Amino acid sequence: MSKTIQIQTRSVIDFEKLYDFLWQSDKSVVGIGRSPDIVYFYCKGYSTRGIDVSKEDTGYHVRLTTLANPADYKLANSVVLFFRINNLDAVVRLADNIVESVNVFLTNELMGYFKRDAELVYQLANQHQTAITLFAANQEYYLGEYAFSKIDMEKSDWEIRTEKLIQQVLYKLPKSESDHVMQIGEGENTKTAKLVTADVSYVLKKYDTLLFNKSKDSNQMHDLLFLTNDILNDNLPPSWERIDDHTIVAPALGWEAYLEYVKRMTPFHQPELF
C-alpha cells in the first residue's frame, strides 16, 4: 500500500544537494524533476516504483506507492537521513506517528511490504479480470493473468520472481528503435495507435490498436491491418517474446516474414477500432 513520510521542517532544501547526497551513497540513483516542488527518484536497475519527494506547506513528503520494493524503501530511508543531517529541526512522521529511529523502515521488513502489495495486485487483477498497469522509471509494466502464471504463484519465493520480472521489463529489455505512438481523436475519445513496420525493432506496450502495413508500398488507412493487444498476444510471430501481460520484445521481421504474418492475421482485422 502507499505510504507517506511527513518531514516537518521550516527549512528549505536544495533538491540538487539531496540528489548529490543520494548519489554519493548509491550510484544507481536517478532524479527526475516533475515540477519545481516535486522530484522523482529511483534506483536504476533495482527500483520497482521509485519515490516522490515533494515540498509541502509544513515541510516535505516522501511518497512510496503500491509495489515499492526494498530498493525504494532504502532510498526513502536515505532521504530521511539527509533531512536528519541537514535540518536539525526536522520532525519525521509516518501514519501520524513520530519516528525517532534512524531508519523509518527496517531492513528485515522491506520484502514483506513488497509481498503484501504483490498479493493485493494479484487479487485485483483476478477480481477485475484485467492486467494492472503500474509505472516506474518513466515507463509502465503490466501485471495480470499472464504475468502471474509466468511467475507461478503456487511455488515459494514467488515475490522474488515478481520483483525480477518487473526489473526485467524496466531495465533489461533491448531499446526500442521507435517509441512513437499516434493519438487519434480528442478528449475522452482519444485512442492510441502504434504502427509496426517490417524493418524496425520494438518493445511494444499496451495500445488501443496496433497497425500493420498490408503492402510494402502503402501507408494509407485502408491498406492497414488493425489488431488489438489481445489478438496480438495470442498470435505472436515466432521471433517475438511476450514478457508481461502487454510488453512484447519484437525484433524486426523483415518484409518477407512481415507480409506473411500480415496475411495470416488478416482474418483478425478489426476495422471498427477506428
For the largest beta-sheet, the strand count, sense and barrel status come to: 7 strands, antiparallel
Note the beta-strand portion: 25-35%
Number of strands: 16
Radius of gyration in whole Å, from Cα?
22 Å
* SSE class: alpha+beta
Q: Indicate the percent of residues in helices.
A: 25-40%
Number of domains: 3
Strand order of the largest sheet: 2-3-4-5-1-6-7
Give the uncertain stretches in residue-range form.
none
How large is the count of helical segments? Answer: 7
Q: Specify the overall morphology.
A: elongated
Could you explain how this protein is built, in words?
It is a single chain. The protein has 274 residues and is an alpha+beta fold. The chain folds into three domains: 3-104; 110-172, no CATH class; 181-268, no CATH class. Helix content is 31%, strand content 27%. It has seven helices and 16 strands. It has helices at residues 15-25, 70-86, 110-128, 145-151, 158-171, 229-234, 255-265; strands at residues 3-8, 29-35, 38-43, 51-56, 59-64, 91-94, 97-98, 132-136, 139-143, 182-184, 191-196, 202-204, 209-213, 224-227, 241-242, 248-250. A seven-stranded antiparallel sheet has the order 2-3-4-5-1-6-7, covered by helices on one side. Strands 10-11-13-14 form a four-stranded mixed sheet. It has a three-stranded antiparallel sheet with strand order 12-16-15, with no helix packed on it. A hairpin with a 2-residue loop joins strand 2 (29-35) and strand 3. It is elongated, with a radius of gyration of 22 Å. It starts with a strand and ends in a 9-residue tail after the last helix. The mean pLDDT is 95.
